[in-house]
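Dear H.,

Thanks for agreeing to be a second pair of eyes. The structure we're designing against is below in token form, covering all 337 positions.
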């Protein structure tokens, strides 16, 4: 679903007329969610000064360097009252990189369902819910950040893409494309990235900020994850697991496991991998799935593990124990692969 010319014109008018605009990513933000919200924020701030990014929960350390994070409002914690007030007073609410309210968490979902503001959805996942007045939803895109760039262009706001906005948008494209190697990376993607670099993006520094800023404990946790990797050659599959004890031993902080799942696909003849993380405080096993080729991990996650995402990258969760979840995963492979 794309926006018509008439909708673009109407949206521009609402942006200019709105008393308050709020931009929301999904819970547990990643590079694309944070990059798209902050990228749009830097552009809209030049048109409507009362614009705020509202994050469902804490921003992981590896993304706190992004320009604009210090001006965001966090929903969970001590700011719930202020955040709810902001939502209720907002004329226009952008929801980026998610297409269902439950992706913001139960607390925030319950509030969003009661709000009569105008919603704008920009997202590249399957099966969008029908809550937005303006819906820009397409699985053809590799990232929401690329969609935001196209939306900005459609509204003739390219001249408002500052170095700060470009840095945020570039970050989301780079992370969600797996460093420009995933299938949805197109010539258009690279042309956008070239324009962002021309606007002042320091792509080398962004890579350093994202990937070369590990601390000792994070590297030790990676080492444990790789030690825990198992190969199932009969299914061309690998999986990695981290128990709560593993996380505690290396003083896990949010964001420390980012990217670990991708190691499972670096092994010859492996085209499907899973990463299981035990989170006892949340009483769930968090699962990340990745694939190469035609194996659809989105459908796999939806069918078996309460999740979803994209053909080659998806997430899920389990309420069983870590051992039970892994055993279930292996059993399913016998029928799915």
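And this is the sequence the design step returned. I haven't edited it by hand at all.
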């Amino acid at each position: 679903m794309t926006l018509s010319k008439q909708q673009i014109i109407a949206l521009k008018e609402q942006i200019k007329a709105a008393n308050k605009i709020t931009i929301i990513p999904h819970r547990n933000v990643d590079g694309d969610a944070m990059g798209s919200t902050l990228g749009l924020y830097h552009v809209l701030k030049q048109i409507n000064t009362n614009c705020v990014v509202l994050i469902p929960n804490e921003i992981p350390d590896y993304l706190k360097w992004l320009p604009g994070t210090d001006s965001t409002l966090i929903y969970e914690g001590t700011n719930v009252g202020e955040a709810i007030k902001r939502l209720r007073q907002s004329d226009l609410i952008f929801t980026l990189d998610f297409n269902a309210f439950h992706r913001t968490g139960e607390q925030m979902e319950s509030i969003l369902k009661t709000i009569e503001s105008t919603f704008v959805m920009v997202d590249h996942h399957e099966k969008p819910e029908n809550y937005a007045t303006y819906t820009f939803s397409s699985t053809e895109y590799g990232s929401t950040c690329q969609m935001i760039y196209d939306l900005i262009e459609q509204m003739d706001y390219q001249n408002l893409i500052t170095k700060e906005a470009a840095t945020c948008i570039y970050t989301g494209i780079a992370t969600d494309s797996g460093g420009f190697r995933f299938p949805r990376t197109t010539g258009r993607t690279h042309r956008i990235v070239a324009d962002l670099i021309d606007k002042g993006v320091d792509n080398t520094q962004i890579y350093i900020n994202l990937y070369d800023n590990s601390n000792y404990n994070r590297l030790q946790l990676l080492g444990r994850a790789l030690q825990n990797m198992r190969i199932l050659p009969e299914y061309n599959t690998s999986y990695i697991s981290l128990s709560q004890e593993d996380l505690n031993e290396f003083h896990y902080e949010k964001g420390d496991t980012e990217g670990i799942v991708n190691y499972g696909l670096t092994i010859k003849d492996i085209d499907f991998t899973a990463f299981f993380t035990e989170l006892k405080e949340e009483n769930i096993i968090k699962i990340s799935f990745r694939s190469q080729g035609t194996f659809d991990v989105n459908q796999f996650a939806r069918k078996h593990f309460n999740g979803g995402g994209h053909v080659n990258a998806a997430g899920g969760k389990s309420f069983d124990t870590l051992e039970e979840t892994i055993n279930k995963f292996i059993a399913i492979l016998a029928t799915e692969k």
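Two observations from my side: The first strand starts at residue 21 and ends at 24. The radius of gyration is 20 Å.

Warmly,
E.
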